[in-house]
Specification:
Layout lengths: L3 H10 L23 H12 L14 H14 L6 E5 L5 H8 L3 E6 L2 H14 L3 E5 L12 E5 L8 H11 L4 E7 L7 H16 L12 H4 L10 H9 L6 E5 L1 H9 L4 H6 L4 E6 L1
Helix pairs in contact: 1-9, 3-10
Amino acid sequence: MLTTLERQLDRIVLRPARKCELGACCSVGGTASGEGPIEQVRSFWDLDAATYDNSASHNPRTALELAAWAGELRRLLPPPPARVLDVGTGTGFLALLLAKQGYQMSALDLSPAMLARLQEKAAGAGLEVKTFQGDAAEPPLDGFDAVVERHLLWTLPDPAAALAAWDRCAPQGRLVLLESLWGGTAGPGQRLRRHGHESLRRLRKEAPDHHGWYDESVRAQLPLSDGATPEQLVFLVESTAWGAARVVRLRDVEWAARRSMPSVLDRALGVTPRFAVAAR
């Protein structure tokens, strides 16, 4: 008999792999009249690219947060100069951070404007990142040593197919999924924390992280659109050729993010629990 978790993931893991309909880098989105799903997603992120880095959650900037992320990534990845693919890179937070540590970085994203912003930042920092514009389920088959993603899987119409594609481009490499508890995976305490932070942002008249949301018809095509628990992601990874997975709580990243918050009230509310699921 299937467990509750297996029933929840049955339509992700057990159905035949198919081509991704929406593409690589949707985190939230909007729709455009007369456009198909993939064009809607690309149009949204092309528009969002100009302000995406204004959000501290998208683009941590303090020296403490950058050091915490660098330390966690060095624990999870093979040592530099390993060849790493950052899937759904956006404006390149992970790609640039890893390139600075000496990794040979490639970055894949659906949005040309996001990639243009990444390239602008790389040039300003004197870093080299090879970029690819396209679908998360169609990565360059370059024999990478590792594949990383951050908050991408929930945006994909077929997460299992994407994981299988990433295995093909890193057949001997490592997988690192960087995720957090949000949406339907968050407990009552996390939901109260989120509402508290949103209230503080409104009081400060801060702009939201994104300029819109996906239409429900688009979200309905994303099986993980309400988030995924660590248990679900372990089950998903282990259903693919990646094999046995392990979970690491990103406590240093949480601690650094909390210390970097703008007020005592923000710090009292705390941060969303963050974790990594790694394989090989």
